[in-house]
TrEMBL record:
Taxonomic source organism: Branchiostoma floridae
Higher taxonomy: Eukaryota, Metazoa, Chordata, Cephalochordata, Leptocardii
Keywords for this protein: Metal-binding, Zinc, Zinc-finger
Region (Disordered): 1-53
Pfam families: MSS51_C, zf-MYND
InterPro entries: Mito_gene_expr_regulator (IPR052839), Mss51-like_C (IPR046824), Znf_MYND (IPR002893)
Superkingdom: Eukaryota
GO terms assigned for molecular function: zinc ion binding
Record-annotated MYND-type domain positions: 111-148
PANTHER family found in the cross-reference section: PROTEIN MSS51 HOMOLOG, MITOCHONDRIAL-RELATED, PTHR46920
Protein name stated in the entry: MYND-type domain-containing protein
Amino acid sequence: MNILSAENRQKSEDWRRKNKRPLKYGNPDRTFQQSHQHPGTMEPPPDEDRHFRDEHYPQRHFRQTFGHVMNQGGNLLTPDQLKKRNKKTHETVAKALQQTFEKLDDLRRYCFVCERSDKVNRCARCQMVYYCGQKCQKKDWARHKKVCKFLSGERIDQVTETLPVQNACHVLKPGRTWSKPAGEVATWADWLSINPSVVSEIQRNVPSMVEWYKFIGRPTTEAAVTESLQRCCTEMLTHPIVIGKGLVTFNVDPRVKPVHIHMVGAAKPELLMSEIDTTKELSAMFPNHKGMRILLVGPEVPHKLAHGNPPSNKTLSKGKIEYVYSNELYHDFVHRYVDHDRCPKADLVIALHPGLHTEVLIEPWTPTINLLLDRELPTVFTMYNVAEYDDSLEILIPFRPNYVQSGTNPFGSLLAKQTPFDLNQVFASNSYIMAIKGREK
Ligand SMILES: [Zn+2]
Ligand SMILES: [Zn+2]
């Protein structure tokens, strides 16, 4: 469940139809966008039948088409190098790049205030919102100024996500461990400081990327590209680190005992996470752990997975992370499995972007929330942006949750995107977080 939830998607759809706007390319599964196309440890094979594929995402389409000619043995060729190799290919690539970015701009090419679509100019700073003139731009500035900076970043990320460069996290070796205790790594900067291989992988890619930025007419600095590549890493690893930090918050130590993590309302992001197994980061966080079993539970979990790897009581193996699946609502699952000793109770419950801020979703969530609070299960909820967070806080008031932690999440993804239905709002995975245990006394 996410910001492109049924309700929001409908809203966006209605609005678009009314205004005859082209379809937005918002990809509900944003973890895909930066998982670049080349064979690597964190890239799922591109053409298997995946329920979360989005072929209409222009950047991804470009990478799939031109990755093999632009990237040779893990090195991104510069525009000049490509030209020297094959002039014709170079021309094709240049044209495809132009079309890709035009497509992205077309989605926004209308006055955001009055919706006119002729003679529009964009915000000079971020270039991500268009206006018909100064009057409309001035009217919008109070709202726009809050996101302009993030949108300038997204403008850069658009190119980063298009160029066929593997996510820098692909260099993380299996079996490595964090050189600091999980509790002491407090920010992404701390995380980078203990992962010099990622830092140098980013540095390795920056120079040729800068050439491409210049080539397509969006010149930028090495520092800006570096930050953009770092943002892509945060997007890749935010989910596993949020899980690990949730364990730390509730003093659950997988090095002391095997742990059971229940990811409730699991949908595309969680399924992708299990598929490309970014949770091996948890093994790096907790060296020599006693085993972790991650349950993905929710009506959106495919039957096939639920049948193939059902919840279990089996003993966990040291150092192993295992996935099990169930496609029912969590409170039903608990009554059927946990209450009949068919599965241990959760040491940590996580719901990524449950969408509690919407009237439509709070209703099906209500019995689950009551169960979580009544049984005092350590629970983490995350939200995509401040608007969702504020609304969720408000909607949860009658439940009287006891907050152990709440607010911005230092390990939220930094890859912020414009929401498809309001160009003055941005969202990023796990931006805000609530850790809850039981009810207020
Ligand atoms: Zn206007
Ligand atoms: Zn702007």
